Amino acid sequence: MVIYAPSRNRCQAIASELPPPTRRHTPDRMITQDDIKQLAHLARIKIDPDSIGEVTAGIDNILAMVDTMQSVDTRAVAPMANPHDAHQRLRPDTVTETDQRELFQSQAPLTEAGLYLVPKVID
Amino acid sequence: MSIDFHRRSATELMTALDSGECSSVELTGHFLKRIERLDSALNSFISVCGEQAMTAAKAADAARSAGEAGPLCGLPIAHKDNLCTAGVKTSCASKMLDNFIAPYDATIVGKLQAAGAVMIGKTNMDEFAMGASSETSWYGPTRNPWDLSRVPGGSSGGSSAAVAAGLTPLATASDTGGSIRQPAAFCGISGIKPTYGRVSRYGMIAFASSLDQAGSMGRTVADTALMLQHMAGFDPMDSTSVAIAVPDFSAALEQPVRGLRIGLPSEYFSDKLAPEIADVVHAALSELEKQGATLVEISLPNTALAVPCYYVIAPAEASTNLSRFDGVRYGYRCENPQDLEDLYTRTRAEGFGDEVKRRILIGTYALSAGFFDAYYNKAQRIRRLICEDFEAAFQRVDIIAAPVTPSTAFPIGDKVSDPVEMYLQDVFTIAANLAGLPALALPVAPAGGLPVGMQFIGKAFDESTLFRAGHQLQLATDWHTAQPEDAS
Fold this sequence. Notes:
The complex is a heterodimer of chains A (123) and B (488). In chain A, 24% of the residues lie in helices and 7% in strands. Chain A is of the alpha+beta class. Helix content of chain B is 38%, strand content 12%. The relative contact order of chain B is 0.14. Chain B is globular, with a radius of gyration of 21 Å. Chain B has 488 residues and is an alpha/beta fold. The chains are: A alpha+beta (123), B alpha/beta (488). At the A-B interface, α1 and α2 of A face α10, α11, α12, α13 and α14 of B.
């Protein structure tokens, strides 16, 4: 379990219980441009090299605001994913949808013979 | 023919239709003409469907003549542009969906149509509902009809501006962190965010699925109740829809507030609240006290954590939801992609605006390996603390009253360069979304010539008590009747 205590504007992980040293964003190290490049890759969003500094600074500011929540001890609190603590409702395992491929593909940028077309993946 | 239709409430317009004072064709034509004349200054609509609306209005008049009028038969309505409408563009105010024609209606669009409402168009909003000013729209900012140099709030700023300016009597809206209540407050109208699960999300383009909830906007609390009556209810197509009976909201409106216990959270009425906002909210609460309600000071001790908690959960869910926009199945695709990776990354870079991309990156960070516990899991635990605050408060009170916004509508461009400052606009509204509770915004006395809103937050599925308090206040006051001059 990781415990967090308040700091000036960044979360301060208690040394004895630090997570493995994979963290990029820590109190003594702001989020870096390399971090943003990695996030952009994960999110499949191309970022113009000229704007990466601005994007990095903007996200770092937001994370500083978000990190104010790290000061609260939540070890005894269970996570809440749904405001009513509801679980996923299941429906009977029966076919309810009819095939509407033509209608749906009418919205697609590029199709052929009922298939969605993308650039060649395998030569 | 009367020319003051735009000054009447939806409830009054239904009476006019039912009594034969006007037809739906006359009413619909009146609002379409106002849109044509006034919306170039406001930019509150992305799409106006005049021809389709007039056809629907004729059908409504025919249904009425045949004795088959539904409860909203012939009443014009506008839909926020994140609700799918078959055959009419649904853009979410994004370049990504500028060419998207939904193949089906959102459940609530279908329900309102079945009740007889006539769709006149789709309203502007912040792109993918991410914003508090309606400035991030691909189609340009919407302007506040009270002062064209100011924002109407967001993300449902097109809906709120259109209702306030008398371009439509009713509009749908959605609220993920305050997107119904804050624009309602900035534009001087009423709007309700129902309990999470009360209204179907099927066909509403997802932003943050555990927070999003559609609701109604109108000139009066009674109008929002009338409209919500015909939106609410269980929908098997939405797995988070809750199977619970929808009460008769109109009956609740008539109940006096004598004996009602109204909680005032000290964290919301702190000395940080602008005095001009505090004064007019207190004046409204005094009126309810005069009617026999009891004001009780309460505490919601984790209030300050709501904004940081929200800015983990909402972006995390958004980054997941918006991964579907890949340039393959629908929406925008970049020109001449070199390979599949280039197709994805350039489509998303060119199709999304800066705020949407910023939130996707934050959400990706919060969900990434090594950070999930410190951010997403942590925020979910904080979310429970915020819920528990409300549960404790509702042991002592029936509803909670609070301001909606820390200030009146701010000038266009004032906060676009400072996202954190923009996010703090929702400091009073976000907690109700995290807790899934219903919350009703309604106008109180203006400050400095601009509208001010107050909100009532209720117990889960108890929208009725919110409507009761709001309507009884509006019966005794006239703040909700103020309307801006027509822009020219």
